[in-house]
Amino acid sequence: MHVQSYPDPEMQSILPHQLHPCVNSYNDITLFLLQCNMDIKFIGSGAAAKVLTYYVSDYITKNDLQVHIGLQVICAAIDSHQKHFMDDIESSASVCK
Fold first, then answer.
1. Which tens digit of pLDDT belongs to each residue from 33-67?
2. 32 domain residue, yes or no
3. Residue 31 covered by a domain
4. What is the distance, to the nearest Å, from the Cα of residue 47 to the centroid of all Cα atoms in its chain?
5. What domain of life does the native source organism fall in (predicted)?
């Protein structure tokens, strides 16, 4: 926890003061205008910019699985499992279920 803001030459960023180590720094005006949670950090160049670029590109290109497709996959897995044990008399009932 740091009481005053200070520049971090290694990350080429400014570390704003924090009143508690578990609470992110925030900007009152942005919080009020956007009416949402936010995490503000200055992104200059270097490692922080690379991490931000990776995070944003990974977030916007994520492939959401639609619910109806996920349910079809589960039904197909159950059907396959049932067909596999259909004529199996050696396996116990709990294994078949």
1. 777 766 666 677 678 788 888 888 888 887 777 88
2. yes
3. yes
4. 20
5. Eukaryota
Whole-number Å distance between alpha carbons of 94 and 85: 11
* Torsion angle in degrees (nearest 10) through CA of 82, 88, 91, 93: 50
Could you tell me if 94 and 86 are in contact, meaning their C-beta atoms sit under 8 angstroms apart? no
Domain of residue 85, residue span: 67-96
Question: What is the model's pLDDT at position 12?
Answer: 75
- Is residue 34 included in any domain, yes or no? yes
Residue 90, amino acid: E
Question: What pLDDT, on a 0 to 100 scale, did the predictor assign at position 39?
Answer: 67
And the tokens for 95? 């294994």
Kindly state the helix (H) or strand (E) to which residue 66 belongs, with its residue range.
none
| pLDDT for 29 | 72
